[in-house]
Amino acid sequence: MFEQLRNIDKAFKHIRLFSFVVILASLCTCCYVVAESYQMVRRAERRIYLLANGKAIEAFSAERKDNIPVEARDHLKMFHHFFFSLDPDDKVIDENISRALYLADGSAKSKYEDLKEDRYYAGIISGNISQEVVMDSIEFNMDRYPYYFKYYGKQRIIRPSVVVIRSLITEGFLRSVARSDNNPHGFLVERWRVLENKDLRKKARPTKPGPPY
Fold first, then answer.
1. Domain count for the chain
2. Residue 93 and residue 106: Cα distance in Å, rounded?
3. Which of 156, 159, 89 has the alpha carbon at shortest distance from 127?
4. Does residue 213 lie in a domain region?
C-alpha cells in the first residue's frame, strides 16, 4: 500500500513538473507572439502607399533626424528656385516670391524689398527677361543648431539678345518649424544673404530663326 502511495506521489510530481513546463512554454510562446505582432504593426506603420497615375507606389517613413539633410537640401533648393526663377509676368513673379517668402524669415523679404525698390522686377517685365537657377551643391553643417548652410548655384538669365550665366552663392541658417502646405519640409531660412552673384559668361542669341527641321 505504501508502495502505491509513493508511486502516486511520484506520478503527481511528474505531472506537476510537466504542467509547469507546459505553462512556461505557453507563456514564452505568448510573449513571442505579442512581441512579433507588435513589430509587424510597427513595420506596417512605416509603410506608406502613394497613388500616382493610378498606380500604388510603396514608400517607407523614417525618423525626422534621419531625413534632415535630405529635407534641408530640398527646402533650400525650393527656396532658391522660387526666389530666382522668374518670368516677365507680374503674376508669376508675385506667386514665386510669395512661395519663397513662406520658406524664409525677414532676411529674404528685405532682399526682395531692396530688389523691388531698385526696380529689378520691373526691369524683368519691361525687358522680357526670363531667369532660372540651377543648384550645383549645398554645404550643410548639422553640428550646431540652427544648421548653417552655403548654397552654390548658377543663374541663367535669358534676354532678347543674349543669355547670361551668373554665379550664385548664398549662406544662412535653417531652423525647424511646424510643417504646413506652404512649408512642407518644416524649415525656415534665417539670416540669409547673397555672397556672390557675378557674370561668368555670355552667349549671343541668334537674331534670325534657324532652318526648319
1. 2
2. 18
3. 159
4. no
